[in-house]
Amino acid sequence: MITINGRDCIFQPGETILDIATRNRVEIPTICYLKRTTPTGNCGICVVEIEGHSDLSLSCSTLAKTGMIVQTDSPRVVSQRKTVLEQMLSSGNHNCTIGSSGDDAWTQFQMDVESNDDYETLCPAWGECKLQELAYKYQVQGKHTSAPARKIPLELDNPMIIRDTSRCIMCGRCVAACNEVQVNRAIAFGDNGNEKKIIAGKDDSLMTSDCVFCGECVQACPVGALVEKKALNAIRPWETKKIRTTCPYCGVGCQQWLHVKEGKIIKVTGVEDGKPNQGRLCVKGRFGYDFIYSKERLRTPLIRENNELRKATWDEALDLVAEKFTRIIKEDGPHALAGVSCARSINEDSYQMQKLFRSVFKTNNIDHCART
Amino acid sequence: MTNSFGEFSKAKMFLVIGSNMTEAHPVAATFLKNAVEKGARLIVIDPRRHKLVDFAELHLPLKVGSDIALINGIMHVLIKEGLYDKAFVSSCCVGFEELKEKVEKYPPEKVAQISGIEAETIRKAARILASVKPVMLCYTLGITEHTCGKNNVMDTANLQMLLGNMGKECGGVNPLRGQNNVQGACDCGALPNVFPGYQAVTDSFARKKFEKSWGVSDLPSENGLMIPQMMDGLVNGKVRGFYIFGENLANTEPDIKKVEHELSSAEFIVCQDIFETETTRFAHVVFPAAAWSENDGTFTNSERRVSRVRTASNPPGYAKPNWWIFKQIAQRMGHHWKSNSAQEIWDNEISMLAPNLGGIKYNRIEKDGLQWPCPDTNHPGTCVLHQDGEFACGLGVFNPVDWTPPAEVPDETYPFVLSTGRRLYHYHTRTQTGRCEGLNELLGEETADISPEDARAMGISFNDFVKVKSRRGEVCIKARITPEVPKGMVWMAFHFREGNANWLTNPAFDPQTLTAEYKACAVALEKV
Ligand code: SF4
Ligand code: SF4
Ligand code: SF4
Q1: Mean pLDDT over the full length of chain B
Q2: pLDDT per residue over B428-454, tens digit each?
Q3: Which of A15, A196, B72, B96 is deepest in the core (most CB within 10 A)?
Q4: A282 to chain B: which residues are within 8 Å by CB?
């Protein structure tokens, strides 16, 4: 048993204070903590006060011990969190409304950021940023009056992911996502003496590293340092709704959130804790959604006439097929018809097609590409 | 799969055969890699040194198509050295004597000659496999896409029964399905021999049941044709009307020239698809269909989990859900089907007719899906099949099989073996992924993957054009030189029309399943 904010909580050996608090619905803010990976304590935001300990403790990596008395929101804790947030905000181009202090400073800061960014608008993570969210909550603003010059240009050479070191807070979630979750080993902490940063491959770009563009790192990044290129500027979370669905590609059947704006999918993320994928996706599942909006989609039924396919109405096309099939059955029996169903379409479609063949045509000549 | 992806992270050991998981099932591979990082052991059996081999303690790069010889050799050692699970075999299996007799003929020394794997390595593999329990066996199309595909599958089951790894959490035989809903298409009866729920069409009780439910009489009682037989029928006139739903047969079937001849011979072809494809060129009528995310429904993944698919956008133009199109045809032929949504079809028909799916209803799978067997609405679903040694037909039956070589093996004129598969950034014939922004940039063309040794010997450098030629056709594409591929092999995929491996592949089929031998044919390689 330990006590959190005056409440007694039971725990299993090996559980951290954060685990126990989460289970008991006591909210401790976290940034760098990534579920199912080794806690690093990089960000320092999850600190709590333990009675009898002179220093604050990181709840993500401190194991519970019987009798511990923990405060998760004491004045000391709150003040420490504010300091951490302020440092993070001041460390880069966090040009949402919280990135700088007063009005004039904000304008100057915006102009600076815009001139060293390639973005037309505010930070692309606005509204989905953990740092922004916590800064609002703790009423912290950055100390900027102007933006630091950009040291490393935006990385734009791959088609999927934009890397922006100017907004990176070095939390390391991407590194854990890439190495511990997906085990692709494409990115790592780099430390060339005075400057720490996240490096891809041998400190080059994702394109030349072992990156397989699964996008797990993007999903893990709490700020605007890693964003989906295809979703850029298309998405502000309050304008979108999330629809849960199943990936249309391989037989793993990953669970996806479709982020939909005005009837259009603009981004896909994994359903955290969903079965079977626990939030993970691969490159096809995460970035392979926009084929449905291709201009080449079939939009009307087609009928062959003079050796060319021409547009037709549903009635025309359906009548033609029904008549032709009826005639073939009459002339040569039902087994002169055969059909191949689709191993990518929904169950209900395959069911319906075999029902058509069996109960209407009266043949079992129905198969599908089970074998490719 | 007899088991579930959720067990990967707890597994103690994996045996992965013919499965390039990091590219074909990337997320499944992540769970496997997680387990290995935490100490699970991994043996990979595959001609290619694919990415997963980096994580394996033992890689057996067997010759293409020698799987049965190798597995029999491993079983030979297990029996010879008394390492197999005697308790499991005697209490849960039948046919051990026959198996013993069969694998007696596969001593490691002999297997070494067939498979190219040294006898000592085969012994070592057998000993490792016997030392850990349970072992989870995973395979993909590297096992099935052979003329001996069915026997390959049976032999993996033989091995797992002999090791006592069946019916156990973190054990079992686990085929990862290539396409998202192969499992579901099978479950729902898109097969020539069974109704939904694997109820045989030859069984008069099953027919009665479906006749009653569908309000018809005289359901056909003989098994229907499989795809290769249908294709033959197009040429000899036995099949006059051919309905192709969502498959791009002109690119996915072996020997494109032959397939196109068959399709062009057809009297009447109906295609139902979301795009014009190489196959719709042969159609007489094309129906425009709604795509993934344009209608509601369910997919069933490799671990038998039925999960929801939901609508996000409207289909373009006049495109319609597939089930609606089938219903309209039925109606025009005098059958008025009641169900008028995917949910009605599932809840009122499929789940009522297939006993294993009986407990799965849309309202139960709003969030996570359920795994069948799930016979009633209080049933939590089933993660592990055959728990406690209970197989569908009582005891597990050993099915001893002999090794047979691929239908076409390298010779003087065609000295290389061509093997095929998928790559990470694309899917099948790219009708979908080829139209996704960015994916073509990551992989823009087909290549012929060859080994550094062969490249050196033939003076081929990276990106040089090479001609790959088989008895059926030839393609001219760029060479990609990679240590993944063993000497003597050319490896290609079928994502691009240009340089599609199926111009070359051999339309030789497993005699029972009629699965084509995509994984092996003989080719010649030439620098151009
Ligand atoms: S996209 Fe995937 S592979 Fe690439 S860096 Fe991110 S996590 Fe690693
Ligand atoms: S890129 Fe994002 S996830 Fe990675 S360290 Fe920087 S802020 Fe954290
Ligand atoms: S996200 Fe990738 S691994 Fe998951 S189902 Fe889709 S294609 Fe398969």
Answers
A1: 88
A2: 777 778 788 888 778 877 888 999 999
A3: B72
A4: 26-27, 424
A206, A251: one domain: no
CATH number at residue A283: 2.20.25.90
Measured in angstroms, the CA of B111 and the nearest CA of chain A are apart by 28
Q: Which residues of chain A have pLDDT under 70?
A: 97-122, 144-150, 192-194, 233-235, 370-372
Q: Does A247 touch chain B (CB under 8 A)?
A: yes
User: In chain A, which residues have their Cβ closer than 8 Å to the Cβ of B436?
Assistant: 287-291
One-letter identity of residue A230: K
For tokens 């297990």, the residue is B78
Q: Is the ipTM of this complex over 0.85?
A: yes
Two tokens at B404? 């047979």
Q: Is residue A259 part of a domain?
A: yes
Identify the pLDDT of residue B379: 86
Domain that holds residue A31: 2-73
On whether the CB atoms of residues B153 and A226 are closer than 8 A, the answer is no
For A136, the token pair is 């609002």
Q: How many whole angstroms separate alpha carbon A341 and alpha carbon A336?
A: 17
Same domain for B214 and B115 = no
Q: Are residues A69 and A14 in the same domain?
A: yes
Distance CA B6, CA A255 (A): 14
Amino acid at A310: R
Taking an 8 Å cut-off on Cβ atoms, the answer to whether A347 and B188 are in contact is yes
B29 and B154, same domain (yes or no)? yes
Which residues is A304 bridged to in the sheet?
A309
- Give the mean pLDDT of B230-238: 91
Stated pTM of the model:
0.90
For residue B101, the distance in angstroms to the closest alpha carbon of chain A comes to: 31
Domain contains A115: no
CATH number at residue B437: 2.40.40.20
- Looking at the 3D structure of chain A, how many domains does it have? 4
